[in-house]
Amino acid sequence: MADWKTPEDLKYTENDEWIRVSGNTARIGLTDYAQDHLSDLVFVELPDVGDTVTKGEAFAAVESVKAASDVYAPASGKVVAVNSALDDAPETINSDPFGDGWIVEIELSKPTDVDDLMDAAAYAKHCADRE
Amino acid sequence: MTYIPHTDSDREAMLAAIGVGSLDELFDRVPEALRFPALNLPDGQSELEVAAELNGLAAANIHAGDYAIFLGAGAYNHFVPSVVNHMLLRGEFYTAYTPYQPELSQGTLQAIFEYQSMMCALTGMDVANASHYDGATSLAEATTLARAHFRGKRTKIILSPGVHPQYRAVARTYHQGNELKFVGDKGSATIPDLIDMLDDDTAMLVVSYPNFFGQIDEFAGLAQAVHNAGALLCMVVDPMALGLFKTPGELGADIVIGEGQPLGIPLSFGGPYLGFFATRKKYVRQIAGRVVGETVDKHGRRAYVMTLRPREQDIRREKATSNICTNQGLMALAACVYMSAMGKHGLRRAAELCYHKAHYAAEQIDALEGYSVDMSKPFFKEFVVTCPRPVDEINEQLLEQWGIIGGYDLGQDYPDRANQMLIAVTEMNTKDEIDTLVEALRDPDAHAGHEHAH
User: Fold this and answer.
1) Contact indicator for B231, B204 with CB cutoff of 8 Å
2) pTM of whole model > 0.95?
3) Would you list the domain boundaries of chain A?
4) Cβ–Cβ of B316/A43 closer than 8 Å?
5) Over the stretch A42-90, which tens digit does the pLDDT of each residue have?
6) Do B315 and A43 lie within an 8 Å CB cutoff?
7) Which of A50, A106, A122, B227 could form a disulfide with A118 if both were Cys (CB 3.0 to 4.6 A apart)?
8) What is the pLDDT of residues B256-269, one digit of tens each?
9) Using CA atoms, how far apart are residues B73 and B419, in angstroms rounded to an integer?
10) Does B152 touch chain A (CB under 8 A)?
11) Domain A11-111, what fold?
12) Residue among B149, B295, B319, B321 with most chain A CBs within 10 A, to mutate
């Protein structure tokens, strides 16, 4: 299915995570492309508040009916909030990947980490290239 | 009958396709001296001759049926109803290897599901896996769960010295090289002593129920203390004891493990045995081992499948919950058949027989001059006897002159328990056997010069 949503105000990773920066904090989740390819999510393994995340390293995991996948940090920092609503409703990532399906909020330790990430247009092309 | 499907013309065609003149040419890289060496084997024998030779070899061993057995310490001479073997030896169960495709193996999957369900009922837990190798491995996997649950933030595992020494050794071996510290079991710490060791670095506290010495410890307040410290409580249990005593679930355990050999599995010189593992629902995604679940097929009919697979190696590789990805399917089936045949009441009856026979034996032995039995705590089917002589001396006489396999020499594992014997009494020990044991302990030399023939 082509035409996955790619909101303009976000930055994207090659592993299909998005990051929305506001000031010194950022929200992180999985993209529409990711949820479409994973299919129905059944479980999300969240980190603890206070955990350190490192750019490029796995900090969470998701399980769908098809696969189990790690979620990688687009930037380094400290977890300040986790979306515990996903414990009972992991499928929110499928229905609203950029909104209520957010996974964690972090306090950025190095704001320049996001500089090398893709913008919406580059990410849309990245998705199209893989189909 | 030939088991190789290739014909000569198949072989010729294959050789021609790869441009090789003969099969021998395929081996020309192997040095000539090592190719097809001459083997100095005797002529083949008939089935009759082979059977006679093997039976002769087997007869050199004594086995459980030949002697009165009072040895336990983790593996017990319990009764195995004949129905167990009738089910186990069916080819569909006996020879199938990892038969878990739901399209083909509903019988196997249902048997495992029922085994899991019965283990939950027996232990008072929410979920059980399809088993591990043995009780010791189950303890190692419980430790793995505790480590994963706290994501490495808690590194201490408190072990009661009353947990089976081999289980504690295996858990340490399994976790060598990682950050976990195993403490608490070097001396003779009591339950209150272990509770004092709890701190915010404790991931799990492990006790045995009954303990290795056959005793039932006082567990009041234990679960609460462990949970107040934020840690997990693991109980190592004898499944036969659960026919009589409160479930670990009622006592507040988070993980229940143990050795399932008492449930319809013979002694078999040490194995195969059955490690069972049961826990609360909230930990289910962190447990190791296979798990069978119940679902419906596309026609709405009940069906069984392996489930929660993303815990396992073929999906998560190094992030799987364990590096061991197998179970003891046939032994789990044995336990399932045993528990079904015995039922709740049968299991209780077997446990009662063990309890009463052990207490009868303990009283008789305690009355002997020079012997004393530790009856300071309630006990189930094993008890500790302090003997007037070294245990190995007594056991040698019992074996050679009385036809009795005596109890376990505790001095091997607990340096301050020299001359202490751990005696096990099960439903298989008759009153006559127990009375003979008492007579033999009273006066071991009475049968001197009589070799016990078997």
Assistant:
1) yes
2) no
3) 11-111
4) no
5) 999 999 999 999 999 999 999 988 788 899 999 999 999 999 999 999 9
6) no
7) A122
8) 999 999 999 999 98
9) 16
10) no
11) OB fold (Dihydrolipoamide Acetyltransferase, E2P) (2.40.50)
12) B319
